[in-house]
Amino acid sequence: MAGIYIGSTAGYSGKNMVVMGLGLKLQKEGYNVGYMKPVGAMPITVGDRSGDEDARFVQDVLGLDDDPAAVTPVLVTQDFKIRAFGGHCQDLMTPIEENYKRLSQGRDAMLIAGSGSMYSGKYCGVDGVSVVKRLGAKAMVIDRFHKELNYDYLAVLREELGEAMIGAVLNDIPPTFMDEVQSMIKPFLERKGVKVLGVIPKDPLMGAIKVGDLAQRLGGKVISAASKAERVVENFLIGTMQVENFMTHFRKNKNSAIIVGGDRSDVQLVALEGDCPCLVLTGNLYPNDIILTRSEVLEIPIIMVREDTYTVAKRMETILSRHKLRDVIKIRQGAQLVSSSIDFEYLKQVTGL
């Protein structure tokens, strides 16, 4: 039985996407795949069964119905943290190991999902590095591009895990950085013993969010064309500049929500006529009647929020980088990205599948 731990250099790096992509691919090839997320930070209770929200979602996608408490034996709550930091951290690795053995029975492969980074949970002895060593699993580590890659982190992990680290997956790589990855970073990592299992290109759809969900996450409300709140936002653009300059940037950034002051009707009108997915009006200011009418006619939603433009832009950046993989279309696209980007033959060879 092959045990594969999917960890990452930081949180929100694409672990669920890779786990689901691997699982669906292996299932399609006829393998009996099991799943576990030893440590969960999103407690949820359905009926009388407690577990982790992300883990339950992945189980549903993979068609698995194992006991959520066995899938995620360690749930991190505020009470848990208080006890742990107070020095009352019990032996948590034993239940992880026992449940792993139970869930592994009859499986060809076990996918073990990490939580946070590979060192998250060190304060109570359940970090990814410790879990990999205790379970005797093989580790693949995702490094998501965010301004740069964490290549030093990957090299250190290789030194610490040795042969147990079978490789890295470089995720969300923008087209402008792909040449550097292929010509410099990939060769560097492989000289350090870090096999690059795959390079997943940036796909705008994977970071997209529906207008209705965006309004909720921003703490705002949709005040116009609410029936079109299913429209999808892939990026954002700040409309604080002069109209002429804004138009230049707007043409290059389609599918971008426009964040603009509620009093900037000139920019608002240009954005609406240019078919942006939605307007996000800041400062808790209602638009004028012309803007509201055009919004309804063109079926482009308007979200109104209280905060200033800078604050909303910072929140948007965080939301788009951390939005959960929940829509069916995203799952299919993510599975396709993983399937086409990762060296499955090598993965099966080193794990004995």
Automatic annotation (TrEMBL):
Residues 213-318 form the DRTGG domain. Transmembrane segments: none annotated. Homohexamer. This is DRTGG domain protein. It comes from Desulfocurvibacter africanus subsp. africanus str. Walvis Bay. The lineage of its organism: Bacteria, Pseudomonadati, Thermodesulfobacteriota, Desulfovibrionia, Desulfovibrionales.
